[in-house]
Amino acid sequence: MHITSVATKAYPDQQFGTSGLRKRTQVFMQHYYIHNVIQSIFDSLKGFEGKTLIIGGDGRYLNSEAIQIAIKIAVANGFGTIIVGRNGWMSTPALSHLINKYEAFGGIIFTASHNPGGKDGDFGIKYDDSNGAPAPLSLTSKISERTKGIDRFWWADIPDLDLSVINEYTFDQAVVKVINPVTDYAEYMAEIFDFEAIQKLFASGFTMTFDALNGITGPYAKYIFEEQLGAAQGTVVHGKPLPDFGGCHPDPNLVYAKDLVDSMFKPETKDFAAASDGDGDRHMILAPNLFINPADSLAILTEYLELIPFYKGKMYGVARSMPTAPVVDDVAVSKKIPLYVTPTGWKFFANLLASKKVAVCGEESFGAGSFHVMEKDGIWAILAWLNIIAKTHKKPQELTYELWTQYGRTYRLRHDYEGVDSGAAQEMFKALASKLPNLTGTKMGQLQIKEAKVFTYTDPITHEKASNQGIIVTFSGNASVVFRISGTGTVGATVRMYFAKKEKELDAVPAEVLAPLILTANTLLQTKKYLGLDAPTSIT
Ligand code: VG1
Ligand code: CO
Fold it and tell me: Of 147, 179, 211, which marks where a domain is finished?
């Protein structure tokens, strides 16, 4: 095997965001663009010679080419073992699990998560470190910095490998292993959950639909739900990973999983429905005629997780991201466990999970997970729901109404203004930030502002500081609005506004309850003035 140093020119735009580097697919198709990122990752790490690297992807367009490139650069840089998922497939949580299981140095996953795929869609790359957690801010900053100065990458002149069959290839000191990406993960899920109880649930006639949205979870879901747990054949829909996700947007929410949602809002429905995103770390839960939002889902998981033996006596605490409606806060108080509020992005949960400060974490963006892996995990969350349903003998809608009856119902909505002008968005946020000191205590319409501040976070373990993590305005009457700019968008800027308000009334319409809050938020941020937009481009 021959290893050469290949000259390259730096790209100025390889900045890592909330979750890795995400760009239009065509941006990634530029000459040596992928090569530069991978070498920049390796240049930012130390001590991996002879160690193991896991590589996978969510199957989107460019996945196979990117994986072949990553293998060659990894071998050239001196990794000893490279483990790749068959077909180049692997979900993000499965990557995290494999890193732990094989005591790997780290892992690379090619995904733009819930963003659309295809040649005209998006592509991306994430790096997970040796405990299977998303690279921390300190590392992603280092990688981003390195991409600006890179002028060469290391290249092994080995052939493209056939990744469609399970096999091992040896090149001098290095071995590349192609493995079944589903089996290890499925075995781990069987260790965590009471599969027998869930099998009985399905055997008793319980019905479910799982929509993989043509993303990576199809093979995992078919094997686990249908083959192992005995759910009816056909439970999994859109179960084959497709390079362009069949033209769909693989984001499990009310807008993009509309067919599934519609199927649950009919007189005759399944007992339960769920969906996951492109790379398998998100999940959406539905009951007959009821959408169970991520904040409620996190609260219910926290309330009941100890019924599952794996978690017995391990409910150390719980964490939610700041824009996530504070439903779980009430559960934390009632269970007398600590609550942490972090910035957006799973990387901020990793230290809390690893140091056993928390057992469960969740985000409003349909992500939840526990210390079982250091990434959020869609299939895990759905299995947790099934296990809780099986153990409590309660329907998902009953669990939800019980939560609301006990604590009150928190209505929440998110408005996104997608693909807006970056400069205008920055200006708009600057203008609001400058107003904040004078807002506390003032009245806007019916609403009294309790506090208005920019959210900053200091990691309780590393003491790393993350500043400028969005603006939060809290109002009297259990209401709040959060404003932030997305870190995963690929065109212009995406502005997000998150609304939450707790009410005693259980069956109101979220948009009606939140209308005054939405009006006030728009007056505060002045979206019309700065963005020229009257309404958001997406409501979830
Ligand atoms: C979004 C979500 C955030 C999530 C991130 C990655 O980030 O809001 O909660 O962690 O996507 O999710 P942003 O910066 O666009 O709001 V995924 O499924 O990429 O790994
Ligand atoms: Co994802």
Answer: 179
Separation CA 207–CA 272 (nearest Å)? 6
- Verify whether residue 40 is a known catalytic residue: no
Same domain, 354 and 263: yes
**H/E element, 63:** helix 63-77
Residue whose CA is at the smallest distance from ligand 1 atom 18:
113
The answer on 494 and 367 residing in a single domain is no
Considering the domain architecture, whether residues 172 and 289 belong to the same structural domain is answered as no
- φ and ψ at 392, to 5 degrees? -85, -15
CA of 125 to the centre of ligand 1 (A): 14
**Strands of the 174-179 sheet, one edge to the other:** 21-24, 122-128, 106-110, 52-57, 81-89, 174-179, 167-171
pLDDT at 487: 84
Ligand 2 centroid to Cα of residue 2, in Å, is 37
**Are the beta carbons of 381 and 301 closer than 8 angstroms?**
yes
Q: Which of 44, 113, 480, 486 is catalytic?
A: 113
**What residue owns the CA closest to ligand 1's atom 8?**
365
Single residue among 407, 428, 446 that ends a domain in this structure: 407
pLDDT digits (tens, 9 = 90+) for 246-264: 998 999 999 899 999 999 9
CATH number of the domain residue 145 falls in: 3.40.120.10
Q: Give the pTM.
A: 0.95
Q: How distant, in Å, are the alpha carbons of 137, 142, 363, 460 from that of 466?
A: 8, 15, 17, 12
Q: How many CB atoms within 10 Å of residue 102?
A: 17
Q: What spacing in Å lies between the alpha carbon of 538 and ligand 2's midpoint? A: 18
The total number of structural domains that make up the chain: 3
Q: What is the pLDDT of residues 475-522, one digit of tens each?
A: 999 999 999 999 887 789 999 999 999 999 999 999 999 999 999 999
Minimum CA distance residue for ligand 1 atom 20: 113
Binding-site residues, ligand 1, Cβ < 6 A = 18-19, 113-114, 277, 281-282, 321, 344-346, 363, 365, 367, 486-488, 496
Q: Which residues contact 5 (CB under 8 A, 6 or more apart)?
A: 152, 153, 154, 155
Among 58, 365, 497, residue to substitute to test ligand 1 (most atoms within 8 Å of Cβ): 365
